[in-house]
């Protein structure tokens, strides 16, 4: 078996949960976080002086991003009290506050497993986040895509058990499905016809960093996208 090394904190110990999710014992990162860090490194987005909006910051990432970006790091969430590890976090409601973001402000906008929670128009939210990027900026995000499923959402009142059955978790309001991804998310952003990490990364590297094989090829809940300004398809 390939010796695993967390590319976020450098820790060599990882454990596999019954769900087969590989967790770093050092920083607690999941595979999708390590993949996101790998992509941030590849695209040279971990440089002092950049301005970053980080939505629902992960404990494994927030302190390290702050250490690199300093005052340029802006963590936000609708429930900031749940993120005491994120320096300077402030309250931010994606539905109410994203339209007020100033255009051309951020070099980097990060979010992972957030869009399935948004109780409002996810297309509009994604548009406003992208509008807030500077020229050359990137929106780096993990929007979970479920294989063999179609897009569905329900913004009405949902019992937790109903939400969990329909959308996979009791606080989700939508599901992104691989079967109609190009007709949904693909109408907002230019997406590849197929998702294949092996076009850009060596299999041994992915395995060493504990990135699950299900994420290597084909859309999955771990698919991370690096979206530039030119990838936005919605225009005036």
Written account of the structure:
The chain is of the alpha/beta class and 236 residues long. It has 6 helices and 11 strands. The protein has helices at residues 31-42, 62-69, 94-97, 122-131, 160-167, 203-208; strands at 14-16, 22-24, 52-55, 73-77, 90-91, 106-112, 133-142, 145-146, 152-153, 174-177, 224-228. The chain has a 6-stranded mixed β-sheet. Strands 8-10-9 form a 3-stranded mixed β-sheet, with no helix packed on it. Strand 6 (106-112), helix 4 (122-131) and strand 7 form a beta-alpha-beta unit. It is globular and about 45 Å long. The termini are far apart.
Salient structural properties:
236 residues, alpha/beta, 6-stranded mixed sheet, 11 strands, 20% strand
Put simply, the count of helices is 6
| Terminal CA distance | 52 Å
Residue share in β-strands: 15-25%
Tell me, rounded to a whole number, the average pLDDT: 95
Low-pLDDT parts are none
Estimate percent helicity: 10-25%
Structural class: alpha/beta
Oligomeric state: single chain
Say how many strands there are: 11
Order of helices and strands: EEHEHEEHEHEEEHEHE
- Major beta sheet summary: 6 strands, mixed
Strand line-up across the major sheet: 5-4-3-6-7-11
* Global shape: globular
Question: Rg from C-alpha positions?
Answer: 17 Å
